Every structure is written in structure tokens, then in C-alpha cells.
From TrEMBL:
<feature type="transmembrane region" description="Helical">
    <location>
        <begin position="374"/>
        <end position="400"/>
    </location>
</feature>
<feature type="transmembrane region" description="Helical">
    <location>
        <begin position="421"/>
        <end position="443"/>
    </location>
</feature>
<dbReference type="InterPro" id="IPR013057">
    <property type="entry name" value="AA_transpt_TM"/>
</dbReference>
<dbReference type="GO" id="GO:0015179">
    <property type="term" value="F:L-amino acid transmembrane transporter activity"/>
</dbReference>
<dbReference type="Pfam" id="PF01490">
    <property type="entry name" value="Aa_trans"/>
</dbReference>
<dbReference type="GO" id="GO:0016020">
    <property type="term" value="C:membrane"/>
</dbReference>
<keyword id="KW-0472">Membrane</keyword>
<feature type="transmembrane region" description="Helical">
    <location>
        <begin position="183"/>
        <end position="205"/>
    </location>
</feature>
<feature type="transmembrane region" description="Helical">
    <location>
        <begin position="225"/>
        <end position="254"/>
    </location>
</feature>
<feature type="transmembrane region" description="Helical">
    <location>
        <begin position="266"/>
        <end position="288"/>
    </location>
</feature>
<feature type="transmembrane region" description="Helical">
    <location>
        <begin position="308"/>
        <end position="327"/>
    </location>
</feature>
<feature type="domain" description="Amino acid transporter transmembrane">
    <location>
        <begin position="44"/>
        <end position="439"/>
    </location>
</feature>
<keyword id="KW-0812">Transmembrane</keyword>
<comment type="similarity">
    <text>Belongs to the amino acid/polyamine transporter 2 family.</text>
</comment>
<feature type="transmembrane region" description="Helical">
    <location>
        <begin position="47"/>
        <end position="66"/>
    </location>
</feature>
<feature type="transmembrane region" description="Helical">
    <location>
        <begin position="160"/>
        <end position="176"/>
    </location>
</feature>
<feature type="transmembrane region" description="Helical">
    <location>
        <begin position="348"/>
        <end position="368"/>
    </location>
</feature>
């Protein structure tokens, strides 16, 4: 094992420089996107833009679902879950970034799976990646359709709003480069942040929660420590975990960064801000709303504030869905055109493959959004089925691959090796337990009418 691979992952990556040769006017190195005459330059994203893209990938979904998960778990366990999962998600994002700098030919998490486990692991990882981001893209569409419902006063069938949401998300995702999307992520992030802040201020001004009975005694439902069933508890924990687990989407962005070594800086800024915002916003909303918190949480402060919040935040919800569709489409796009001239040439094949994959991802996301139109269940499903192995298990394996000699090293190295094996074990538990829990919750929701039949006109998105 080389010396540079033995460096601790939290330190800046000390990987070898990419071997670079010049063939004519084209730069040939290990990066998936080359630079040279006649090639469209995809490596145009600065670290600040990257940090904002990361923020938009993570922030919009989590901040809308964590307050309802707090009710299930209780304030104290909920806060511990936020801090604990965000720490692990941040660490695993850094592991992936250092591994990618050590092996710059990896465009996606599937490429990393191929390197450590061969073709079978690559294909399994690729499927999990697509499943994860198709599901969270569906959650973005649910968010947009919920906003349109709220703003229109439910003037037409919810399913029609879902179609409109899918079209909006697809159009926003159609730009080929993350650099082009980066500019709208600034506005998207600002709109969601302001919308959530409006709700946070709004709930503090109410005498009692907007969804609670406005006269007479009522059960508030605030608990420091709650006592949920296993299915409800693991679903809530999976929802909180999923709120910061989309770090595998950082890797395609990293491949389009001007300087991939700045990845660590972008991740630290993003995840630090996200953790602070999640903890503060969710605790305040839960403190003032108790069990009457809505999911998505923008509906927690009453009809008027709900309309204002959704009016401000609809751009951000649309951009979030667009990023998820873009990431999943970009994965297939690169898989199909990799090592061909069409990857970076403005040919008919290039554009046909790009728009074909984009539309396919959007259509599948729309179908899922119509089938499971409850926001937190969608995120919990994505967290347990796909993000647990992608964001926890595989990073543990990647670290072990690059530090294979640690198991026979010093005691400190052996402990680090053992902790990464434990990380893989946590991912297995969350995958099995979380999937079981959310399936039970979805089945119960269909039985009690919280979810209506697929493609119905009922508005289920505000169920908590």
C-alpha cells in the first residue's frame, strides 16, 4: 500500500497527480472529462458554486421533513439523530472525495464500486444510485405539486399539478453542465431558506398550532423523549439520515470542478451550514407545533403563511427536483457515451442521449411521486433502500480498500479499521430495518386513508 493512501482521510488528499500526456492539442489524463481543442469543457465549476450545488442537493428536502420526524422520536433523540447522522454523512462525503482524488477516473459512486468490488458491485451500486435519486426527484415533484396546490387553493386535480411539476422539473434540469445549473441554485437555495424562515417565524406567533383545534383543550404532542414503535422509529431515523445522505451526488459535480482538490472545502462549508440549520429550524418548529407539524413543514403555520412560504419556496423545490433528475440522467449519459467522441462533442448522438435519459428519469420520478405522494415516506424509502448502502456502507469499504494494511498496523490504525467495519454494519442494519419500517408505515397509511390510490385527485402531501 502506497504511502499517500495511508494518510488519514480527514487530512487533505495526498494522492498522486494525474498522469498527464499531450496528444496533439488534447489533454489526456485520468479525469473523465478532458480538456482540449474541439472538446466541450465540462470542468468549469468553482468551489463556491460546488458548495451551493451541494447545499441545494441536501437542504431543501431535509429541512421540510425533520420536524415531523422529531415528533415521532421526541426532541432529544431527534436532535441526537440530526447531529449523529450529519456527522457520519459529512465524514463519508470526505471519504468519497479523497478516494476520488486518489482514483480520478471515477466519475460516479458506481465507478468506485467497480474499483473495489468488480463489475457486479458496479452494477448494483449504479442501480442503487439511480433508485435513490429517482425517489428523491419524486419527492421534489411532490413538493412542487404541493406548492401549486396551496397557491391555487386546490383549484384542479392534484394529479394535474403533479404533471405540471414534472414538466417544470424537467425543463430546469435540461442544462447539460452543473455550471449552468449552479447559477439557478443560488436563487433556489435562497428561496427555500427564506420560505423555511418565514414558517419558523410564523409558528412562533400563533397562540396554538394552526392544525390543532382552535377552541377548547387539545393534546399538544410535544415530547422530549417519545416512545414510537420500531417501524415508526426506524422510519423517522431513516428520514433524518436521508436528509443529508445524498453525498454520492457530489461526485459527478466533483468531476466538473475546475480544481477537484477544493472538494473538501466545499463539503465542509455545505454540511456545517446544513447541520446548524436542520437542528435549529426543526427544534423551533417542533417546539411550537408539537404533533400538529405538517410534512412538508411549510404548511405548519396556517393557510396564509403556507401560501406565502410556498410562493417564496416553489423555485427552490423545483430546483431541488431538477438537480436530482439531472444527477441521475448524467450518470446514464456518461455510462452510455464514455470513451466516445460524443461525450464532449455537440453531435446529434450527444444531444439525443442527453434529452432521452433526462426525460426517462423525469417520467419514472413522476410515476413514483403519484404512487407514494407522502413526502417523508418517499425520503425514508430512499434513505433505507439506497442511501444507507451508498452513503455509509460503500464509503466504509472505500476507506478499507485504500487502507488495507491498517488491520495489522498500530492500535490506532486497528481501531480505525474496526470503526469502518462498524460503519458497514450500521448501513446493513439501516437498509434492512429502515426498508421494513417504511413499508409497514406505507401499508398502514393506505389502510387508514392517509394515502389515496395512485393517480387520484386527493391531496396527500400534507400528511405527517
Amino acid at each position: 500500500m502506497s504511502t499517500e493512501k495511508s494518510n488519514d482521510v480527514i487530512e487533505p488528499a495526498q494522492s498522486r497527480e494525474s498522469i498527464t500526456m499531450m496528444k496533439g492539442n488534447v489533454e489526456c489524463d485520468d479525469e473523465i472529462f478532458k480538456r482540449g481543442e474541439g472538446l466541450e469543457d465540462f470542468r468549469t465549476v468553482g468551489w463556491i458554486h460546488a458548495a451551493v450545488i451541494f447545499l441545494k442537493l441536501i437542504f431543501a428536502t431535509g429541512v421540510l421533513t425533520i420536524p415531523s420526524a422529531m415528533y415521532t422520536l421526541g426532541a432529544f433523540p431527534g436532535a441526537i439523530n440530526v447531529l449523529g447522522w450529519q456527522f457520519l454523512n459529512t465524514y463519508c462525503a470526505l471519504v468519497q472525495g479523497q478516494f476520488r482524488n486518489n482514483h480520478p477516473g471515477c466519475h460516479s459512486i458506481a465507478d468506485m464500486g467497480n474499483l473495489v468490488g468488480g463489475r457486479i458491485v458496479k452494477e448494483i451500486t449504479g442501480v442503487l444510485f439511480l433508485v435513490a435519486f429517482i425517489i428523491v426527484a419524486a419527492s421534489g415533484m411532490v413538493g412542487v405539486s404541493t406548492a401549486l396546490n396551496a397557491l391555487s387553493g386546490h383549484s384542479v386535480c392534484t394529479n394535474y399539478f403533479s404533471i405540471i411539476a414534472a414538466i417544470m422539473v424537467t425543463v430546469a434540469a435540461s442544462a447539460r453542465k452543473f455550471e449552468k445549473i449552479a447559477w439557478i441554485t443560488w436563487a433556489g437555495f435562497a428561496s427555500v431558506f427564506i420560505a423555511v424562515f418565514i414558517v419558523v417565524v410564523g409558528v412562533t406567533t400563533l397562540d396554538r398550532p394552526a392544525a390543532a383545534p382552535q377552541e377548547g383543550p387539545f393534546e399538544f404532542g410535544y415530547n422530549v423523549i417519545a416512545h414510537p414503535t420500531f417501524a415508526a422509529g426506524i422510519t423517522a431515523a431513516s428520514t433524518i439520515f436521508c436528509s443529508g445522505a445524498g453525498t454520492s451526488a457530489f461526485l459527478p459535480v466533483m468531476s466538473e470542478m475546475k480544481n477537484p482538490k477544493d472538494y473538501k472545502k466545499a463539503v465542509n462549508w455545505c454540511m456545517g451550514f446544513v447541520t446548524a440549520a436542520y437542528l435549529s429550524f426543526s427544534l423551533v418548529v417542533y417546539w411550537y407545533c408539537g404533533k400538529w407539524v405538517a410534512s412538508p413543514s411549510l404548511g405548519s403555520a396556517g393557510p396564509l403563511i403556507k401560501k406565502v412560504a410556498y410562493g417564496v419556496g416553489i423555485l427552490g423545490l423545483c430546483v431541488s427536483g431538477a438537480l436530482y433528475v439531472h444527477v441521475s440522467a448524467k450518470y446514464i449519459f456518461v455510462r452510455i457515451l464514455r470513451n466516445s467522441r460524443h461525450l464532449q462533442a455537440n453531435t446529434l448522438v450527444h444531444w439525443s442521449v442527453w434529452f432521452g435519459t433526462l426525460i426517462a428519469m423525469a417520467v419514472i420520478s413522476f410515476l413514483i411521486a403519484s404512487g407514494v405522494p407522502i413526502f417523508n415516506y418517499l425520503l425514508s424509502l430512499a434513505g433505507s433502500i439506497a442511501f444507507a448502502p451508498l452513503a455509509l456502507g460503500l464509503p466504509g469499504w472505500l476507506w478499507i480498500y485504500d487502507h488495507a494494511d491498517y488491520y495489522k498496523g498500530t492500535w490506532s490504525q486497528k481501531i480505525q479499521y474496526g470503526l469502518h467495519i462498524l460503519l458497514i454494519g450500521i448501513s446493513i442494519f439501516l437498509t434492512i430495518g429502515g426498508t421494513y419500517g417504511v413499508i409497514v408505515q406505507i401499508m398502514d397509511a393506505y389502510k387508514d386513508g392517509s394515502i389515496d390510490s395512485a393517480f387520484s385527485c386527493a391531496d396527500n402531501s400534507n400528511s405527517s
